[in-house]
Amino acid sequence: MVSAPVSVPLVDGFGRVHRDLRISVTDRCNFRCTYCMPAEGMKWLPRDEVLSFEEIERIARVCVEHFGVDSIRLTGGEPTVRAHLPVLVGKLAALRTGPAAAAPGRPVDIALTTNGATLRSMAGHLVGAGLRRVNISLDTLRRDRFIELTRRDELDNVIDGIEAAREAGLDPVKINTVVMRGVNDSEILDLAIFGRERGVTVRFIEWMPLDADQRWKSDAVVSQSEIVAAIGAIFPVDPIVRGHEPAERFAYRDGAGEVGVIPSVTRPFCGSCDRIRLTADGQLRSCLFSVDEFDLRALLRGEASDREVAEAVQRCVAGKSAGHMIGQVQFVRPRRSMSQIGG
Ligand code: SAM
Q1: Do 222 and 180 form a contact (C-beta atoms < 8 A)?
Q2: Residue 1 has pLDDT above 70, yes or no
Q3: In the chain, at which end, N or C, are there fewer CB atoms within 10 A of the end residue's CB?
Q4: Ligand 1 centroid to 103 CA: how many Å?
Q5: Given ligand 1 and candidates 24, 114, 118, 137, which is best to mutate, with the most ligand atoms within 8 Å of its CB?
Q6: How confident is the model at residue 5 (pLDDT cuts 50, 70, 90)?
């Protein structure tokens, strides 16, 4: 008889405990954001290389039961282009932390990162299946710029998707905005005002060297200090003590909510990172910038036991680097770009 798993923390060589699993459900996307994907020519994974919902659920269950992972975020590519996504959400929402044989543990917090374009039709189904939170990407409020940036004319649908998410009861609804110098940095304040007026938290993201076209340059990165200065000059903010989340958070002094910055480049938060990432083709990565991957799909399709899968997860995390080294001579760009890893 296979013994029940014992839940142990998933600790790396630097003492960081990992409780957050990011799952890419597809490498495909209905947008072609310039800072992420090429206009054409992206090579998609063959269907049979992409994990099935049952395989994703099994890996998630091993992480939840063996290691107390209590937060799962679905991403991509664009996760909503994967058919029947609510079915997967339902499977993951049924997971409980801790060993299966023990008293029922806590439910897992299920979140989604999406471009939001189809949320008007999908948000209700996703909430019904157990989704609680959503991050919606929105880099500009100007239609011409939106078309240039995403190579799609979908701004109205994305803004409507934000409303649909709120109406469906997703809470919080956060906006992810990648800021690039000379591209959309003139809109930092407008986007902050958009968040204040709609009661959604905007999280500005420093552009990272993960674009498929390899056009990233350090001087195109708009730093956290520049972003906070631009907002704070009009709406004073106070820092909020940071937890494990990647965003540095700031509360508006006038009580109109908060704004965040993910300063991956200028103020990396690797020291408190608690995330592991599963690609759509079943490769486990301990970091966005990992050069190593652990092939969980091969284990699953080779009929490995849950314990063997758990051991591979532990090996992956044990080898996690201290930090990503962007901007230093040792930095090595990963072979895969952001949409192929899962942001
Ligand atoms: N398609 C979904 C979306 O648009 O949110 C999910 C996948 S997308 C790769 C996840 C997040 O990564 C988005 O917020 C996107 O803006 C961000 N992103 C993509 N490329 C990036 C880069 N090179 N640097 C920083 N953030 C990036």
Answers
A1: yes
A2: no
A3: N
A4: 38
A5: 137
A6: low
Q: How confident is the model at residue 2 (pLDDT cuts 50, 70, 90)?
A: very low
Decide whether any atom of ligand 1 lies within 6 Å of the 334 Cβ: no
Across the range 51-59, mean pLDDT stands at 98
| Residue 138 Cα to ligand 1 middle (Å) | 10
> Between 160 and 246, whose confidence is greater?
160
Which of 98, 170, 95, 178 lies closest to 140, judged by CA? 178
pLDDT of 242 above 90: no
pLDDT tens-digit map of 135-159? 999 999 999 999 999 999 999 999 9
**Separation CA 201–CA 248 (nearest Å):** 12
Gap between the Cα atoms of 342 and 279, Å rounded: 6
CB 84 within 8 A of CB 126: no
> Is the bond preceding 172 in cis, omega lying within 30 degrees of 0?
yes
Q: Which two tokens stand for residue 283?
A: 């490769």
Beta strands in 120-194, from DSSP E residues, in sequence order: 133-137, 173-179
Query: How remote is the CA of residue 21 from the centroid of ligand 1, in Å?
Result: 16
- Ligand 1 binding pocket includes 211 (Cβ within 6 Å): yes
β-partners of residue 71 are 20, 109
CA angle 241, 259, 155 (to 5 degrees): 150
